[in-house]
């Protein structure tokens, strides 16, 4: 991510260098390929438990993590594969985790919903809707208390907005932000459905950004299918939060073109036409068209990126498949810190 | 050197001792700062340490407990006050789903050096929603440590240990005893977790308790000596998780009889666990079935006479000991 960012003087959406867009396209294609491989692995019985893929939402994390600075923290719910890949975790380790292997990024102890790479700033994927939000607010307070200028990128879904944990945490964030003690960027990934229930069917006030008004947190919306729009918001807002120590919320309008979980038949709760309409605005498709239109890449380059991504992910799958399961002794490790000999016998 | 202090003063002294040594220690909770704390444990500390270290929170247990977990994951050492443990149900998702497990499901990448403290148990006519003893609930979850000190010296020493512990500690205070006095060691008197305390030595029967029921057992032991010539040993568990099996088993090997006392409800309580451990580890030493004394199986009532009836009484304990000794109940 060495390419320079190009902001207009007015801070509006701007042309991004071709090189940078191609780079982001590559990342998004890799995420898509990874998620498709996961769906396959799930159907084959190689991946257990729950599996939540990011297909359709790639531009969101790709855009925001582009503005991630060393020391910042990312926290999200269980749709977390893309965040790990974008922060630089080797796809092999991510896939191995999903395959339940000892070489996985959390040693086979968390699975798809609990990806952590603390060294790179990924403070976790969490499985209880809304439950991670207070943690991210606590990170923000801690980073200011410790005298750094790091920020939290706190991802949450539209489904978390009706949860008490969200409201309690947003209230605290607004409060602590008054003293510049809460550099937390709330990134609401509004993919329109909390599992199978649409936003309209879960809250009477569907302007999710505006929910933050109640807590004194400034907010706005952005088109999450347009990577350039996301990049602009990300660059501007991460710096504002870093500068002020005050939280900010951005509702990113996106769409999950895959089922909620790999075992979900999503036609039951969505109209075919709606899915088709959103697919036309697929973030990868849109960017690809832009690259072709602007001669930033030709068909050959696109094919090359796609086949390289496939190869990269195929290697990850191979690694995961061939890795060993965790050592059986790992069952009792990592329960307590500072306890080498914990056996479960008190 | 030791001085006589109240449980309240000793508890506060433990926190202050660590705050003075480690800037990452902060206090959080409802009304702990400007108001001085509902139970005056933290009175005046906001003036000394400032509002960034003594953080007044909204009435929002899930929110601030979760935020404290986040702070702890980044190396701070928050001490969260639950105004009473009854409110912790609102934070139980954070405590159980995040604090207890995040180290495990992150493959050991994080630690959660967090203390959650507050008054536990009843006895002051607070009725159903404000009266619970939650040591068995929190003791159930691997990843948490659970302690329940009863003496002023232990409450200070165990608070020091709790703050230094790299794991989440559920610190259950004997709320009804904040004003009781005892000798407290000066300075660093850290008390190791997982070590029970023999509160009274005896040879005929072992009474096992924790929290304020230890004092009940000590009174019962005196009565047994006076009325029945029985020498009861009293064990104060102090620490529910980790648990000290050895002290317990050694005592039962000596006395051959055990009564286990808890304020909480009988079903699925700590006393049941204690009885199970004794039969597993000291079966051959037992001369009588292990007796359990517990709270009545009802939500806590308000009226004083009903409340007294709902909690273990000295008479219940002495009679349980007499049953174990096969002597006549009184």
TrEMBL record, chain A:
<comment type="subunit">
    <text>Heterodimer of an alpha and a beta chain.</text>
</comment>
<dbReference type="InterPro" id="IPR050642">
    <property type="entry name" value="PDH_E1_Alpha_Subunit"/>
</dbReference>
<comment type="function">
    <text>The pyruvate dehydrogenase complex catalyzes the overall conversion of pyruvate to acetyl-CoA and CO(2).</text>
</comment>
<keyword id="KW-0670">Pyruvate</keyword>
<protein>
    <recommendedName>
        <fullName>Pyruvate dehydrogenase E1 component subunit alpha</fullName>
        <ecNumber>1.2.4.1</ecNumber>
    </recommendedName>
</protein>
<feature type="domain" description="Dehydrogenase E1 component">
    <location>
        <begin position="27"/>
        <end position="328"/>
    </location>
</feature>
<dbReference type="Pfam" id="PF00676">
    <property type="entry name" value="E1_dh"/>
</dbReference>
<dbReference type="InterPro" id="IPR001017">
    <property type="entry name" value="DH_E1"/>
</dbReference>
<dbReference type="GO" id="GO:0006086">
    <property type="term" value="P:pyruvate decarboxylation to acetyl-CoA"/>
</dbReference>
<keyword id="KW-0560">Oxidoreductase</keyword>
<dbReference type="InterPro" id="IPR017597">
    <property type="entry name" value="Pyrv_DH_E1_asu_subgrp-y"/>
</dbReference>
<keyword id="KW-0786">Thiamine pyrophosphate</keyword>
<dbReference type="GO" id="GO:0000287">
    <property type="term" value="F:magnesium ion binding"/>
</dbReference>
<dbReference type="GO" id="GO:0004739">
    <property type="term" value="F:pyruvate dehydrogenase (acetyl-transferring) activity"/>
</dbReference>
<dbReference type="InterPro" id="IPR029061">
    <property type="entry name" value="THDP-binding"/>
</dbReference>
TrEMBL record, chain B:
<dbReference type="InterPro" id="IPR009014">
    <property type="entry name" value="Transketo_C/PFOR_II"/>
</dbReference>
<feature type="domain" description="Transketolase-like pyrimidine-binding">
    <location>
        <begin position="5"/>
        <end position="180"/>
    </location>
</feature>
<dbReference type="Pfam" id="PF02780">
    <property type="entry name" value="Transketolase_C"/>
</dbReference>
<keyword id="KW-0786">Thiamine pyrophosphate</keyword>
<keyword id="KW-0670">Pyruvate</keyword>
<dbReference type="GO" id="GO:0004739">
    <property type="term" value="F:pyruvate dehydrogenase (acetyl-transferring) activity"/>
</dbReference>
<dbReference type="InterPro" id="IPR029061">
    <property type="entry name" value="THDP-binding"/>
</dbReference>
<dbReference type="InterPro" id="IPR005475">
    <property type="entry name" value="Transketolase-like_Pyr-bd"/>
</dbReference>
<dbReference type="InterPro" id="IPR033248">
    <property type="entry name" value="Transketolase_C"/>
</dbReference>
<keyword id="KW-0560">Oxidoreductase</keyword>
<dbReference type="GO" id="GO:0000287">
    <property type="term" value="F:magnesium ion binding"/>
</dbReference>
<protein>
    <submittedName>
        <fullName>Pyruvate dehydrogenase E1 component beta subunit</fullName>
        <ecNumber>1.2.4.1</ecNumber>
    </submittedName>
</protein>
<dbReference type="Pfam" id="PF02779">
    <property type="entry name" value="Transket_pyr"/>
</dbReference>
């Amino acid at each position: 991510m060495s390419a320079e960012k190009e902001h207009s003087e007015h801070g509006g959406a701007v042309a991004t260098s071709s090189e940078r867009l191609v780079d982001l396209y590559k990342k998004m294609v890799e995420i898509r390929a990874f998620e498709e491989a996961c769906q396959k692995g799930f159907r084959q019985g190689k991946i257990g438990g729950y599996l939540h893929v990011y297909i359709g939402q790639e531009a969101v994390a790709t855009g925001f993590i582009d503005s991630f600075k060393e020391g910042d923290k990312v926290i999200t719910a269980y749709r977390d594969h893309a965040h790990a890949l974008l922060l630089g975790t080797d796809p092999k380790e991510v896939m191995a985790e999903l395959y339940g292997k000892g070489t996985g990024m959390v040693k086979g102890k968390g699975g798809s919903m609990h990806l952590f790479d603390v060294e790179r700033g990924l403070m976790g994927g969490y499985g209880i809707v809304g439950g991670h939000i207070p943690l991210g607010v606590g990170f923000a307070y801690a980073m200011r208390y410790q005298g750094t200028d790091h920020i939290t990128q706190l991802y949450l879904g539209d489904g978390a907005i009706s949860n008490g944990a969200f409201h309690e945490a947003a209230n605290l964030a607004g409060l602590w932000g008054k003293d510049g003690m809460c550099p937390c960027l709330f990134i609401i990934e509004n993919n329109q459905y909390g599992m199978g229930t649409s936003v309209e069917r879960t809250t009477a006030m569907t302007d999710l950004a505006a929910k933050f008004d109640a807590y004194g947190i400034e907010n706005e919306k952005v088109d999450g299918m347009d990577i350039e729009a996301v990049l602009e918001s990300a660059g501007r807002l991460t710096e504002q939060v870093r500068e002020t120590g005050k939280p900010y919320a951005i509702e990113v309008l996106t769409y999950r073109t895959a089922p909620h979980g790999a075992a979900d038949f999503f036609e039951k709760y969505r109209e075919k036409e709606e899915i088709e309409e959103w697919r036309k605005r697929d973030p990868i498709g849109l960017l690809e068209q832009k690259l072709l239109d602007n001669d930033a890449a030709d068909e050959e380059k696109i094919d090359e990126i796609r086949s390289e991504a496939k190869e990269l992910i195929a290697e990850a799958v191979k690694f995961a498949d061939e890795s060993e399961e965790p050592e059986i002794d790992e069952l009792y490790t990592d329960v307590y810190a500072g306890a080498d000999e914990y056996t479960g016998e008190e | 050197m030791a001085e006589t202090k109240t449980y309240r003063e000793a508890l506060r002294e433990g926190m202050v001792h660590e705050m003075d040594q480690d800037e990452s220690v902060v206090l959080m909770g409802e009304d702990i700062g400007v108001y001085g704390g509902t139970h005056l444990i933290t009175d005046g500390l906001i003036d000394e340490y400032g509002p960034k270290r003594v953080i007044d929170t909204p009435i929002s247990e899930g929110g601030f407990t979760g935020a404290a977990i986040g702070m702890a994951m980044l190396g701070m050492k928050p001490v969260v006050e639950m105004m009473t443990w009854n409110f912790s149900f609102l934070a139980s998702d954070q405590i159980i789903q995040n604090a207890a497990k995040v180290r495990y499901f992150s493959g050991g990448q994080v630690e959660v050096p967090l203390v959650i403290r507050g008054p536990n148990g009843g006895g002051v006519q607070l009725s159903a929603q404000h009266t619970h003893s939650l040591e068995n609930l929190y003791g159930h979850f691997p990843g948490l440590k659970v302690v329940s000190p009863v003496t002023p010296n232990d409450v200070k020493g165990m608070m020091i240990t709790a703050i230094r512990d790299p794991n989440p500690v559920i610190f259950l205070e004997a709320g009804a005893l904040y004003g009781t006095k005892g000798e407290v060691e000066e300075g660093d008197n850290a008390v190791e977790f997982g070590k029970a305390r023999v509160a009274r030595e005896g040879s005929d029967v072992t009474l096992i308790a924790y929290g304020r029921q230890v004092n009940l057992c000590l009174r019962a032991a005196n009565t047994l000596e006076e009325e029945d010539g029985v020498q009861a040993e009293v064990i104060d568990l102090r620490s529910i998780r980790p648990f000290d099996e050895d002290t317990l088993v050694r005592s039962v090997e000596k006395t051959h009889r055990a009564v286990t006392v808890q304020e909480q409800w009988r079903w699925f309580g700590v006393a049941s666990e204690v009885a199970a451990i004794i039969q597993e580890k000291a079966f051959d030493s037992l001369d009588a079935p292990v007796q359990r004394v517990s709270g009545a199986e009802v939500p806590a009532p308000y009226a004083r006479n009903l409340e007294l009836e709902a909690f273990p009484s000295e008479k219940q304990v002495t009679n349980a000991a007499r049953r174990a000794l096969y002597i006549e109940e009184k």
